[in-house]
Write a structure and sequence with these properties.
Layout lengths: L20 H12 L3 H23 L1 H12 L8 H48 L3 H6 L2 H43 L1 H48 L1 H6 L3 H53 L5 H42 L11 E7 L5 E3 L7 E6 L5 E5 L4 E8 L8 E8 L4 E6 L5 H8 L7 E6 L2 E2 L5 H6 L1 E4 L8 E2 H6 L7 H10 L3 H5 L8 E2 L8 H15 L3 E5 L7 H14 L4 E5 L11 E6 L2 E6 L1 H7 L2 H7 L6
Parallel strand pairs: 7-14, 7-15, 10-13, 13-14
Antiparallel strand pairs: 1-2, 1-3, 3-4, 5-6, 5-8, 8-9, 11-12, 15-16
Helix pairs in contact: 1-10, 2-4, 2-6, 3-10, 4-6, 6-7, 6-10, 7-9, 7-10, 9-10, 14-16, 16-17
């Protein structure tokens, strides 16, 4: 026979309520529509499971009245009818067991498929979000969506919803049968039930409050552990081990007290409900016995009614708890759907990058195979096409930009970088150096002005094609889990092994890679934690080198390496930069001396432009920076 619903695994945090539960539930149902046939069978199986329990219980009445009581005292009782009734009860109970298995098994298929599609949609949508979204949302927020909220939603679909339906079915059918058997005893059950619901409400409200305090205390303990783990060297240098043990003991003691209070409330809930259920059973038994003694009720009715009483109390309490679990899951689902509703990165570009062959007379022809030469394919309003060779000319024309409407980051920026030139940006932190490079690859769109790439407004170029023509080496290097070879090849997925080796040699990374335990097949994990910061930077530069782009953006690419490694990188970069347009951001001014043009930024404006020698002769801000009269911060 069907059992009462399993208690939900909530209590971990303060109960949240969805703002639009019906709209959210409708969207969840839309994800479940591909499994509508299975869902129909789930509903039928839930009804079958609940009703089988009711039917078996009701058969106790004829079993007692028609067979057990009349056969008492007979020496050779005829048990054939009783055996048939028992077989009927067993068949109904077996059907209920099968229905329970069926709806649980079908819901497993539904929930795994639904969660798979939701995760696919979330991850796919995340790839289409603009950089601005990631600037305003932490990685922890995103991971919480993929873990906590998705897991809570999974539990709701797989456990809470079917068991909620089962509980409701059981309560309604049992209540109807109780009314049929004895309206008077049913009123008694309702009175005790009200007491039970009030008790559940008082305990769960207090429990939720204590669990909220427990989560706050747990958060403080985890944060303290993480902070001390990261600062372990500082702790040891200043011999503060005893002090931090005392501080941790205080945090841990507070967690112990809050957890004790929270779990005390949570753990007494089920015993209290159980005792109230026993109280209900006892009171009903006494009342039924009195009615039987008065001749107003037969024994079969009492037996069936008492069994219904046992089947009635637990589903009622489960409905309350499952409802809270469902509402909490809907609140998490709202966050998931809010994430899915975030506006995607728009792209109205129509100029694309194509493989090209350039004849001796300068004619450009598009070809379907890789040639090593690229061209911009530009469709026009008159349905004609023009092709512009990819060179790497970049022009800023009175560019104005701000991350929000209240603050301008770049103000009236105009500069030109011809193909093959090395442009260096210097200035204090917050001057707008990195912002300029982010505008070139259209991580952000301009407020005013234009940026032209090979004479084409970059707003007309498809973002994917624009970014394929660029390569970036960032200050914060990110390596993926995989081999060194795979990390380098990330810049060009179809690159041959020889191209990987050539790129590594060009970045002066081949020597240290060859000395690794498995060489290029050494597996990197946790963002390359088994490498030094300088080695990780060399791999990132090799990754940019293998892409072989006409434009390179180096955002303080050598800031994390020592002087010797920096010299090795610069040798490789000099070879890599030949014939390419390069934008360099560096705090070490010694690395930009050979730049074709140095741009000095201050408060989002260009205050000086020229070569190293020209700016030194001016004896203004660059001169002050270079000679140490003014510190970069």
């Amino acid at each position: 026979m069907a059992k009462a619903a399993i208690p939900p695994r909530s209590h971990g945090k303060k109960m949240e309520r969805p703002k639009s539960p019906f709209a959210t539930f409708q969207r969840i149902l839309n994800y479940m529509l591909p499994y509508k046939v299975q869902l129909i069978f789930v509903v039928l199986a839930v009804f079958g499971s609940g009703l089988s329990n009711v039917a078996v219980t009701y058969l106790l009445k004829p079993a007692v009245n028609q067979y057990i009581v009349p056969l008492i005292g007979q020496k050779n009782p005829d048990l054939s009818g009783f055996k048939q009734l028992v077989c009927c009860m067993a068949a109904i109970a077996g059907g209920g067991v099968f229905c329970t298995y069926l709806f649980n098994r079908l819901m497993l298929n539904v929930v795994t498929g639904t969660m798979r599609q939701i995760r696919i949609d979330m991850f796919t949508h995340m790839q289409k979000l603009p950089i601005r979204f990631f600037d305003t949302h932490t990685h922890g927020e995103l991971m919480s969506l993929y873990t906590n909220d998705v897991d809570t939603l999974r539990e709701m679909i797989s456990m809470s919803l079917p068991h909620m339906l089962l509980s409701v079915t059981t309560v309604i059918s049992v209540f109807v049968m109780m009314l049929i058997l004895s309206p008077l005893l049913t009123c008694l059950v309702i009175a005790v039930l009200i007491l039970m619901l009030v008790t559940i409400r008082l305990i769960t409200v207090r429990s939720a409050r204590y669990f909220a305090k427990q989560q706050q205390a747990l958060s403080r303990v985890n944060s303290y552990i993480e902070e001390m783990a990261e600062g372990v060297k500082v702790v040891k240098v200043f011999c503060r081990e005893e002090r931090i043990k005392q501080d941790f003991a205080e945090h841990n003691e507070n967690l112990y007290l809050q957890a004790s209070n929270a779990n005390t409330c949570a753990n007494i809930l089920m015993p209290v409900i159980g005792n109230l259920a026993y109280l209900l059973f006892a009171v009903t038994s006494m009342a039924g016995g009195y009615l039987a003694a008065a001749g107003r009720m037969d024994l079969g009715t009492i037996a069936a009614f008492l069994q219904y009483t046992r089947s009635f109390s637990m589903p009622v309490s489960q409905i309350s708890m499952q409802l809270n679990a469902i509402l909490s899951a809907l609140a998490g689902a709202e966050r998931i759907f809010h994430f899915l509703d975030e506006p995607e990165e728009t792209d109205h570009g129509y100029v694309t990058l194509v493989n090209a062959e350039i004849s001796k007379d300068g004619t450009i022809a598009e070809v379907p195979y890789r040639t090593g030469q690229w061209a911009w394919k530009h469709p026009h309003h008159d349905h004609t096409l023009s092709y512009t060779p990819l060179k790497g000319d970049v022009v800023f024309d009175h560019v104005v930009f701000g991350y929000n409407s209240k603050k301008i980051v770049l103000d009236d920026i105009s500069l030109e970088a011809k193909a093959g030139q090395k442009i260096a940006f210097v200035g204090s932190t917050g001057a707008g150096k990195t912002t300029i490079t982010n505008l070139i690859n259209r991580f952000y769109d301009l407020r005013n002005g234009k940026i032209r790439y090979d004479g084409i407004n970059i707003n007309k170029i498809k973002k994917d094609d624009l970014r394929r023509s660029l390569a970036m080496v960032l200050q914060d290097t990110h390596l993926f889990t995989g081999t060194v070879r795979e990390n380098i090849r990330y810049g060009k997925l179809d690159a041959s092994d020889q191209e990987v080796y050539t790129a590594a040699k060009l970045a002066n990374a081949d020597a240290f890679i060859s000395s690794l335990p498995q060489g290029y097949d050494t597996v990197l994990t946790a963002d390359g934690v088994n490498l030094s910061q300088g080695q990780r930077q060399l791999i990132a530069i090799a990754r940019a080198a293998i892409a072989n782009p006409p434009v390179l953006i180096l955002d303080e690419a050598t800031s994390s390496v020592d002087t010797r490694t920096e010299a090795l990188i610069e040798q490789g970069m000099d070879m890599l930069m030949k014939g390419r347009t390069v934008f360099v951001i560096a705090h070490r001014l010694s690395t930009v001396r050979n730049a074709d043009k140095i741009v000095v930024l201050e408060h989002g404006r260009i205050i000086e432009t020229g070569t190293h020698e020209e700016l030194i002769r001016l004896k203004k801000r660059y001169y002050q920076l270079y000679t140490g009269l003014f510190e970069l911060s």
